């Protein structure tokens, strides 16, 4: 009889559920007994052979059997899932009392710190920061700056030439020429950037380093303006007690030209190991823009004058942070860089 078949199906299903060892096995049992081709479904399909008056009773028995199997399946599934969750939690224990992992946050390189300080000082004076190409034409790097073809600086032992006309710039003064050629006067700018020279690597030299060049072009600009500007720059960079001294020098693109020294900020000019007992430290070169340089860029030297200066960014960093070897700036040693 159908009732006996249903009892056997229920017993067998409960037996298999009890002996199952995982959720996959439970799913197989569900399909075998309750699926479209399952044993309980096959009985429902045979209802056509049951007498009409017995069909309601048989249908009720089938539903009761299905509900009984589904109930046990669901209970067993919940127990298995809870056990699996508990096992996972035990395996993934988190000790909330442990200190958190600290993220290593980077910071600026000493060169970048020095550059930002220089830019802050000059932009505070109304200067514009201008960038130029690192691969430059010989004309802009030399000729337009009053450096003739037979000048020693143009020798391949001093300059990286790509071909006869192109080179890696040896100074950011070429950026100043580009600005002067635009004809937008007055000009008040600084030009920071990487430059290249064929130098051997040692404590104070590198084939690649950085410069900050400055240029002012306007009517009635004098050497006094240059001295006042650079004196204020030195005070803001090295301290309010810093003094400046100008020594005559020669640069092809300025006339007159000078080297500027600052009083030693370690000893106040008295003389110490840092300034080699002299009380002064050489810091930059400067001068009034040569009239011929103005003419070559299309500026009338009878109407306009100007001054220019250039300082090595690494030199500022070495002095400001008392670093005695330039190579430390490029070795990327974390132990050194973490000090800044």
From TrEMBL:
It comes from the Bacteria. GO terms for biological process: phenylalanyl-tRNA aminoacylation. GO terms for cellular component: cytoplasm. GO terms for molecular function: ATP binding; catalytic activity, acting on a protein; magnesium ion binding; phenylalanine-tRNA ligase activity; transferase activity; tRNA binding. Keywords: Aminoacyl-tRNA synthetase, ATP-binding, Cytoplasm, Ligase, Magnesium, Metal-binding, Nucleotide-binding, Protein biosynthesis. Binds 2 magnesium ions per tetramer. Its cofactor is Mg(2+). Mg(2+) binds at residue 255. It is an enzyme of class 6 (ligase). It catalyses: tRNA(Phe) + L-phenylalanine + ATP = L-phenylalanyl-tRNA(Phe) + AMP + diphosphate + H(+). It is found in: Cytoplasm. InterPro entries: aa-tRNA-synth_II, aa-tRNA-synth_II/BPL/LPL, Phe-tRNA-synth_IIc_asu, Phe-tRNA_ligase_II_N, Phe_tRNA_ligase_alpha1_bac, Phenylalanyl-tRNA_Synthase, tRNA-bd_arm. CDD domains: PheRS_alpha_core. Its EC number is 6.1.1.20. Residues 118-331 form the Aminoacyl-transfer RNA synthetases class-II family profile domain. Belongs to the class-II aminoacyl-tRNA synthetase family. Phe-tRNA synthetase alpha subunit type 1 subfamily. Tetramer of two alpha and two beta subunits. PANTHER family: PHENYLALANINE--TRNA LIGASE, MITOCHONDRIAL, PHENYLALANYL-TRNA SYNTHETASE. NCBIfam families: pheS (TIGR00468). This is Phenylalanine--tRNA ligase alpha subunit. It comes from Butyrivibrio hungatei. The gene is pheS.
């Amino acid at each position: 009889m159908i009732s006996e078949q249903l009892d056997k199906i229920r017993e067998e299903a409960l037996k298999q559920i009890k002996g199952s060892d995982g959720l996959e096995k439970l799913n197989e049992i569900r399909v075998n007994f309750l699926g479209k081709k399952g044993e309980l479904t096959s009985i429902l399909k045979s209802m056509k052979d049951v007498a009409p008056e017995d069909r309601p009773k048989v249908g009720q028995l089938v539903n009761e059997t299905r509900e009984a199997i589904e109930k046990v399946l669901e209970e067993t599934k919940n127990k298995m899932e809870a056990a699996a969750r508990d096992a996972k939690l035990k395996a993934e224990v988190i000790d909330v009392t442990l200190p958190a992992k600290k993220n290593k946050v980077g910071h600026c390189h000493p060169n970048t710190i020095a550059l930002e300080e220089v830019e802050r000082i000059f932009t505070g004076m109304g200067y514009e920061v201008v960038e130029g190409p690192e691969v430059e034409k010989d004309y802009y790097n030399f000729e337009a700056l009053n450096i003739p073809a037979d000048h020693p600086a143009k020798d391949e032992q001093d300059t990286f030439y790509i071909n006869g006309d192109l080179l890696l710039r040896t100074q950011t003064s070429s950026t100043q020429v580009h600005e002067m050629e635009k004809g937008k006067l007055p000009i008040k700018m600084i030009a920071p950037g990487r430059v290249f020279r064929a130098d051997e690597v040692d404590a104070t030299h590198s084939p690649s380093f950085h410069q900050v060049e400055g240029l002012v072009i306007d009517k009635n600009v004098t050497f006094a303006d240059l001295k006042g500007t650079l004196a204020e720059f030195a005070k803001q960079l090295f301290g309010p007690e810093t003094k400046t001294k100008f020594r005559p020098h020669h640069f092809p693109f300025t006339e007159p030209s000078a080297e500027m020294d600052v009083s030693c900020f370690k000893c106040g000019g008295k003389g110490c190991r840092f300034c080699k007992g002299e009380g002064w430290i050489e810091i930059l070169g400067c001068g009034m823009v040569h009239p011929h340089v103005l003419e070559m860029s299309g500026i009338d030297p009878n109407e306009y004058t100007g001054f220019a200066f250039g300082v090595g960014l690494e030199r500022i960093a070495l002095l400001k942070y008392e670093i005695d070897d330039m190579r430390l700036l490029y070795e990327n040693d974390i132990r050194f860089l973490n000090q800044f």
